[in-house]
C-alpha cells in the first residue's frame, strides 16, 4: 500500500510520465494513446484518494522537493481543501478524457496528440496547486497551469483562436506577475514566511499588516486572475474559442478551480478568518464579488451563444467562492469550499452537454435549441439537472453552498448579500433553466429540417439523434454526481470542518 507521503510526489510526476507515453505513441495508435491517458487518470485518481483518506483520518502528509533559498522551499502538504480539490480535479480529468475521445473523434479534430499531452501537463500543475504547502510553491504551479493550457485555448490555430489565446495569456500572466507576485513578496517581507498555516500567519504581525491589509488583500484578489473577479475576467469568455472539452477542463477541472481555491487558501491560511474579520480587509472585495455575481449573470442572459452564456455564468458562480472567503465567517468559508465541488460537477455537465449538442447537430446558439430536447432527451435531461445544481435547487449539490453562504452573510450582518444571492438565483433560473424548457416544450425552429452533421456524428435510436456514447455518458455521470452529492453533503462538511476551526 502506497503511503500518503509517497502519493503526493507520485501525483505530481505521474501525469508527466503520461505526457511522455502519449508523445511516444502519438498518431501511430490513437487507441493506445488514449488508453495511456485513461490509465494515467485512473492511477492519479487512486493516489488522490489515498491522500484524501489520510487527511480524513487527521493526518497532514507532506513532501519537500527542494529548498530554493533559505525559507522558500518547493514543498507540499495535504490539508482538507487541497485534498478535496485533488480528488475533484483527478476524478473529473478521467470523465473529461472519456468525453474528449468522443468529441475529438466525433468532430474530426486535428492535433489530438498535442491536445492530450497538454492536458497531462495541466493536471500535473493542478495537483501542484492542490498540495502546495506555501505561496511560493503555489505560484510556480499556478504559472505552469497557465502556460500548459495556452496551447489548448489556441488549439484551432485560426485568427479567432490566436486572439482569444493572447487575451487568455496576457490577462493571466499580467495579473499574476504584476499583482500576485508582489503580494507574495510583500507577505514574505513582513512575516518571514509564505507557509500556509492554520489560523493564518498575519495575526502574529498585526501591527505591520493591519494598516495595509486591505491593499494586500486586493493584490491577492485581483492577482489570482483565474478566480475571474471582475474586472480581470475577460480571459475566461475569450477562452471559449477552444474545443468544448477544453472549456469543460477550464471551468470545472483545473483552471478556474485553481483560482478560487487559491483565494480561499489565502483567506484561511495566510490572513486567517479571524484576522480578516477584525481588520475588515475583505469587505471591499466582498462587494466587488457581489457585483460580479449580478453583473455577470445579467450579461449571460443576453448571450445567444451557448458557450458564451455558460462562460459568463462561470464568472458569476466563481464569485460565490470569493464572496464566501471575504465574508470572513465560518459559514461563508464553508459555503465557498463546498461551492468548489458543487460547481465543478454542475458546470462540467453543462459544458459537456453543449459539446454533445454541437457534435450531433452543429448547433451552438440558444435560439437554435427549440424543440431539440425531443431528439436529444438524455443530453437535455442532464443539462436540466446540471442547471438545477447551478441555480441551487434541491435535490442538487449546488443548493448547499448557497445555503451556507446565506448563513455566512447573516452571521456577518450583511443582509444585502443575502439579497444578492437570491436575485442571482432568479437570474440563473432565467438564463439556464429556460434552455431545457424550450428544448423540450417549444416548437422546433425549423420543422422537418435535418440537423446538419447529425448523419455523420450522431447515434440514432428511432427518432432520437444523440451524440456518440462517449460524448453522452460523461455528462450523465457528472449530473448523477451532482445529485448524489446533495445527499452526501454532511460527510463533505465534516471533512472540511478544520477550515473553520473544527478538529
Please give a structural write-up.
Its main location: membrane. Residues 132-427 form the NADH:quinone oxidoreductase/Mrp antiporter transmembrane domain. This is Cation:proton antiporter. It is a multi-pass membrane protein. The protein is mainly alpha-helical. The protein has a domain at 282-503. It is 72% helix and 4% strand. It is built from 21 helices and four strands. The strands form two sheets. Strands 1-2 form a two-stranded antiparallel sheet. Strands 3-4 form a two-stranded antiparallel ribbon.
The number of helical segments is 21
Q: Beta-sheet strand percentage? A: under 5%
Structural class: mainly alpha
Number of distinct beta strands: 4
Strand order of the largest sheet: 1-2
| N-end to C-end Cα span | 27 Å
The multimeric state of the shown protein is single chain
Name a few traits of the molecule:
503 residues, mainly alpha, two-stranded antiparallel sheet, 21 helices, 72% helix, globular, membrane, cell membrane, CPA3_Na-H_Antiporter_D
Précis, in short:
By secondary structure, the chain is mainly α. It has helices at 4-25, 30-56, 80-106, 112-131, 135-153, 159-191, 206-209, 213-223, 235-238, 244-253, 255-271, 273-279, 283-301, 306-327, 330-361, 377-391, 399-411, 415-441, 454-457, 469-487, 489-496; strands at 62-69, 72-77, 459-461, 464-466.
Amino acid at each position: 500500500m502506497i503511503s500518503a507521503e509517497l502519493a503526493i510526489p507520485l501525483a505530481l510526476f505521474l501525469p508527466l510520465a503520461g505526457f511522455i507515453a502519449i508523445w511516444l505513441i502519438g498518431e501511430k495508435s490513437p487507441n493506445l494513446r488514449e488508453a495511456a491517458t485513461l490509465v494515467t487518470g485512473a492511477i492519479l485518481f487512486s493516489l488522490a484518494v489515498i491522500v484524501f483518506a489520510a487527511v480524513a483520518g487527521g493526518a497532514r502528509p507532506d513532501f519537500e522537493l527542494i529548498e530554493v533559498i533559505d525559507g522558500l522551499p518547493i514543498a507540499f502538504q495535504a490539508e482538507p481543501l487541497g485534498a478535496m480539490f485533488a480528488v475533484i480535479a483527478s476524478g473529473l480529468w478521467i470523465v473529461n478524457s472519456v468525453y474528449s475521445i468522443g468529441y475529438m473523434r466525433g468532430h474530426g479534430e486535428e492535433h489530438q496528440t498535442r491536445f492530450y499531452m497538454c492536458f497531462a501537463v495541466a493536471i500535473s500543475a493542478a495537483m501542484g496547486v492542490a498540495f502546495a504547502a506555501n505561496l511560493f510553491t503555489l505560484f510556480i504551479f499556478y504559472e505552469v497551469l497557465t502556460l500548459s493550457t495556452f496551447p489548448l485555448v489556441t488549439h484551432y490555430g485560426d485568427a479567432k483562436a490566436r486572439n482569444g489565446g493572447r487575451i487568455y495569456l496576457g490577462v493571466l500572466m499580467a495579473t499574476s506577475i504584476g499583482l500576485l507576485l508582489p503580494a507574495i513578496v510583500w507577505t514574505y517581507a513582513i512575516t518571514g514566511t509564505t507557509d500556509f498555516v492554520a489560523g493564518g500567519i498575519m495575526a502574529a504581525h498585526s501591527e505591520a499588516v493591519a494598516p495595509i491589509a486591505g491593499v494586500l488583500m486586493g493584490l491577492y484578489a485581483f492577482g489570482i486572475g483565474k478566480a475571474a473577479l471582475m474586472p480581470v475576467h475577460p480571459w475566461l469568455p475569450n477562452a471559449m474559442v477552444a474545443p468544448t472539452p477544453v472549456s469543460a477542463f477550464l471551468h470545472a477541472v483545473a483552471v478556474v478551480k485553481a483560482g478560487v481555491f487559491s483565494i480561499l487558501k489565502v483567506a484561511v491560511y495566510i490572513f486567517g478568518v479571524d484576522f480578516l474579520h477584525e481588520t475588515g480587509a475583505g469587505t471591499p472585495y466582498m462587494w466587488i464579488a457581489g457585483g460580479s455575481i449580478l453583473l455577470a449573470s445579467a450579461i449571460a442572459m443576453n448571450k445567444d451563444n451557448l458557450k458564451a452564456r455558460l462562460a459568463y455564468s462561470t464568472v458569476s458562480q466563481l464569485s460565490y467562492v470569493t464572496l464566501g472567503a471575504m465574508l470572513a465567517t465560518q459559514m461563508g468559508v464553508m459555503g465557498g469550499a463546498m461551492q468548489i465541488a458543487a460547481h465543478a460537477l454542475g458546470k462540467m455537465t453543462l459544458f459537456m452537454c453543449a459539446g454533445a449538442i454541437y457534435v450531433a447537430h452543429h448547433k451552438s446558439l440558444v435560439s437554435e435549441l427549440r424543440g431539440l430536447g425531443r431528439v436529444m432527451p438524455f443530453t437535455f435531461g442532464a443539462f436540466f439537472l446540471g442547471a438545477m445544481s447551478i441555480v441551487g435547487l434541491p435535490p442538487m449539490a449546488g443548493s448547499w453552498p448557497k445555503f451556507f453562504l446565506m448563513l455566512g452573510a447573516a452571521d456577518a450582518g450583511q443582509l444585502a448579500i443575502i439579497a444578492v444571492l437570491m436575485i442571482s438565483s432568479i437570474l440563473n433560473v432565467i438564463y439556464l433553466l429556460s434552455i431545457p424548457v424550450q428544448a423540450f416544450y417549444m416548437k422546433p425552429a425549423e420543422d422537418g429540417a435535418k440537423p446538419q452533421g447529425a448523419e455523420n456524428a450522431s447515434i440514432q435510436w428511432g427518432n432520437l439523434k444523440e451524440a456518440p456514447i462517449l460524448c453522452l455518458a460523461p455528462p450523465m455521470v457528472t449530473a448523477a454526481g451532482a445529485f448524489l452529492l446533495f445527499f452526501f453533503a454532511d460527510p463533505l462538511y465534516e471533512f472540511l470542518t478544520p477550515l473553520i476551526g473544527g478538529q
